[in-house]
Amino acid sequence: MIRDDLKGFKIAPRTAARVVLNNSTFSIFATDNFEDILFSCTLKELALIPTPNEINCFHVQNKRNGI
User: Fold this and answer.
1) pLDDT of 40-51, one tens digit each?
2) CB 60 within 8 A of CB 50
3) In a 3-state reduction of DSSP, which class is residue 45?
4) Which DSSP string do the residues of the chain spell out, in sequence order?
5) pLDDT in tens, 4-48
6) What residue spans define the domains of the chain?
């Protein structure tokens, strides 16, 4: 996960994240603790955006509010 919310770096650091996908939601956690949730939305609200410069990466965005 690219942490562009962390300031003070020339290049945003990449950190490990835990992704939980079930039949209705997609959630990302900073650690294995469920209290450390970073992002969550339903699959219907989810948009996967390809990253042109990195073939193995993509952005996950909530269609409803653009987060």
Assistant:
1) 899 999 988 888
2) no
3) helix
4) -B-TTS-S-SS--B---EEEE-SSEEEEESSSSTT-EEEEEEGGGEEEEE-TT-TT-EEEEETTT--
5) 888 899 998 988 899 999 999 999 998 888 899 988 899 999 988
6) 1-67
